[in-house]
Amino acid sequence: MSVDTHADSEERGVFGVSPLLRLVVLQPTPFCNIDCSYCYLPHRSSTARMSSGVLEMAWRSICSAPFLGTRLDVAWHAGEPLVLPVSWYEDAVVGMARHTPPDLVVTHCFQTNGLLLNDEWAVFLARLGARVGLSIDGPADIHDRHRRTRAGGGTHADAMRAVRVLQDHSVPFHVISVLTAASLDEPDRLFAFYEQNGIRDVGFNVEEIEGAHNASSLAGTEARFRRFLARFLSLVWSRPGVVRLREAESTLAALLSAAPIVDEQNQPFAIVTIGVDGTLSTFSPELLGTRHERFAGFAFGNVAQGSLDGLMDDSAFRRVASEIRQGVESCAGTCRYFRWCGGGAPANKLFETGRFDATETMHCRLIQQAMLDEVLTQIETHAGGLLVAQTESEGLISKEGSS
Amino acid sequence: MTKKTDFGKKTKLTMSFSLVAAVVGAVPSIAMASKPVNDPSTLIEASVEPQAERATRNLHARVDAAIKHLRTERPASRQADADIVHHAQWRNR
Predict the structure, then answer these.
(1) What global pTM score does this model have?
(2) Average pLDDT over residues A13-37
(3) Is A335 on the interface with B (CB under 8 A)?
(4) Which of A240, A257, A200, A231 is nearest to B30 (CA)?
(5) How many helices, marked H, and strands, marked E, lie in chain B?
């Protein structure tokens, strides 16, 4: 659903689409109880927590936003959400419900490292109907290489305990694994790990150059990454029902979509991020709290100042929006994958190239381009090779340029 | 699928994964390929076409064939597109 509320605003439909808010990222605290080596969050040692007053102002501004639809995801994120007690969230959810429009369906989402997940949390998450994700990078040696405590200890054992707690309580969950260079030689071990632990739904993130993390072990590994992906996807396809890979499924959906893909990260107000102190941002959630030499910051307002659409008047917002739009237009004009990508993530463009109006990044080469190529290969392979054979015989594909 | 929570708010119960499962779950079982698009206008003149343009046309030809195959095998999967694509965009870190 599109809501046309800004008759002559340049930012209404920066890319020809009216804004529709689908995801709110709320930062209950920036604090994280562990210290992953690839974390992009700059303030993860801060123990600040969102006050009930800020939360109420934030939620009221969300619920009165003109571009609100009928469904909204609320992701409690940008720190480890479970460091605040269950009672904090119980109060938060009750308070939010007072201002929630009756026709708005809200899904609460928690992505957690699992270290603090216990029976009380499992009961709460089940009662809330929350979408729960655990961050586990695979077997202990891969996981503990990067996901460590501040004292340097491993966190795998405690994360796996969280798996058992959720399973014991029959709470559905998915696992997000960050792929690093250490993962790329281990597709079989990763697949076996998920299978042996009853982890059916998996998402792959890549170690990104972003925010406080300014280098990635995946730089220059595209060929290895493609080999990893090809092997992992072949296991997914050949063992149906064992592991569902988020990226493969979303790529299939993109292929089947009647309309070109739009990346919400480069659409203003499709995603709104609200910091612990009420600061407001949009576009890539990773922008909140980060800095860049070319910009004063990416906080475009505060919930205390009024409505969300007032952000459109912020000069910093307009400058960022304009540069992001130019980047997407450049992608549209130069990238053969644009139809199934939508123009890429602004945060990755900025932190890899220094500009929002850039085009190709390592992130999109791995997550968009390699993924689409390898999913196509799986479709072709499991169609008995007939697709490729027929298409080649008809002169539609030349092998050297097929990927 | 939705359910009424203790907080009196309708909350979506299923995950994005379950929405897309029907799509990918069917793929490994596909045994028969549908006939790919046969459009003479897409024939490639490899000797004169620049590499980038050839790569683009190759990709689009592969995608066209894959889409036709997927739609033939599972036309209903298109219904979940909006939800699937939405959840694909920003990945919780």
Answers:
(1) 0.83
(2) 83
(3) no
(4) A240
(5) 3, 2
